[in-house]
Amino acid sequence: MAGEGEPGSEKSFKLLGILDVQNIPCARESVLYGSLGSLVAGLGHFLATSRVRRSFHFGMGGFVLTTLGCWVYCRYNHAKLRIQQRIIQEGMRNKILYESSDFDPESKQNKSQGSHS
Amino acid sequence: MAHPLQLGFQDAMSPIMEELLHFHDHTLMIVFLISTMVLYIITSMMTTKLTHTNTMNAQEVEIIWTILPAIVLITIALPSLRVLYLMDEINNPYLTIKAMGHQWYWTYEYTDYENLEFDSYMIPTQDLPKGYFRLLEVDHRMVVPMESPIRMLISAEDVLHSWAMPSLGVKTDAIPGRLNQTTFTMTRPGIFYGQCSEICGANHSFMPIVVKSIPLKLFENWSSLMLS
Q1: Among A53, A97, B185, B220, which has the highest number of CB atoms less than 10 A from its own CB?
Q2: Neighbouring C-beta atoms of residue B121, cutoff 10 Å
Q3: What are the annotated GO cellular component locations (chain B) (predicted)?
Q4: ipTM over 0.95
């Protein structure tokens, strides 16, 4: 009991002191892709126009948009995965409860296969 | 339970708390991006040689910084309302437990089938066995069956109290003469800690809440044992 859950045992790295990129799902990928997007947008603009200040602005805009886009996409897929996990869990629980009873979905499948053959 | 110096949420032990954690992550990312942008703008303004001392109007930027924050607020509000309405869904609870706040202990009543009622006092530090949590342990824990929707009816006998359980995402005021209802489902077995969250006198900090979640079969054994 004494050593459980101490701050040192859980790795966490918080960007700006708030965003824990190691423990929040999709955060690390979003920030990494955002940094890449920032680099591409900023560098690309600079190579095209040689305007330093404005390239930094584009880099910042690229970071925000890429991070946000990646975050929304990843979280949406993560939410779909969680819903599927819950459905599977419920199905597994019901399988054990309903095995060999009238509610057993496997027995319904076998009956329907039997009637087709 | 919480570890020392913990700032963030505890792990979620109910579906609603999982949803709250996800909403918090979503909002935190938006806050992080806004903070980064503001820091960048401040740095940019501090490092420019450009000056303009007679701005008369700036219609375009006024439109942008009206519309964009409105969009950000809507992006935060929609998931927030979703979680809010999820918390109010009717879920056919299997069990109803009444929690009554007193100065300075809780009483739990399981009156669905038999009249099971017991008080839950904090274990004083001098009586605490080794390895137990100081100011958090109680003599009689509230035991609930896991993976079953539970309805809690919370009230108080004397002054305001509040029944709070961070890992379940529950904090409900206990008001004398009023019944407040909350529902939750424990997804995992274990022992979870909370504390009274409404100032109620000298020992407000010394009336903790401990919930023990066990499989239904063991819960039936426990309730028979408590009734005998």
Answers
A1: B185
A2: 15
A3: mitochondrial inner membrane; respiratory chain complex IV
A4: no
Q: State CA A3 to chain mean position distance.
A: 30
Give me the total of CB pairs closer than 8 Å, taking one residue from chain A and one from chain B.
54
Closest C-alpha to B35, from A26, A63, A52:
A63
* Structural contact between residues B138 and B208, judged by C-beta atoms closer than 8 angstroms: yes
Tell me the per-residue pLDDT of B84-126, one tens digit each, with 9 for 90 and over.
999 998 888 999 999 999 999 999 999 998 899 999 999 999 9
Q: Considering CB atoms only, which of A1, A25, A60 is closest to B40?
A: A60
Strand B208-214 versus strand B142-145 pairing type: parallel
Do B28 and A18 count as a contact with CB atoms less than 8 A apart?
A: yes
Residues 31-90 on A with a CB inside 8 Å of B are 53, 56-57, 60, 63-64, 67-68, 71, 75, 79, 82
Burial class (CB in 10 A: 0-12, 13-18, 19+), A15: middle
Residue pLDDT, tens place only, A9-42? 457 788 888 888 888 889 999 999 999 999 999 9
Distance CA B166, CA B193 (A): 8
In eight-state DSSP terms, residue B48 is -
Per DSSP, A17 falls in state T
Q: Which residues of chain A make contact with B29, given a CB cutoff of 8 A?
A: 19, 24, 27, 30, 67-68, 71
Query: Which residues from A are below 8 Å from B33, CB to CB?
Result: 64, 67-68
**CA A40 – CA A34 distance, rounded (Å):** 10
Distance from CA of residue B119 to its chain's centroid? 22
Q: Around Cβ B97, how many Cβ atoms within 10 Å?
A: 20
What are the start-end ranges of the H helices in chain B? 15-46, 59-87, 216-227
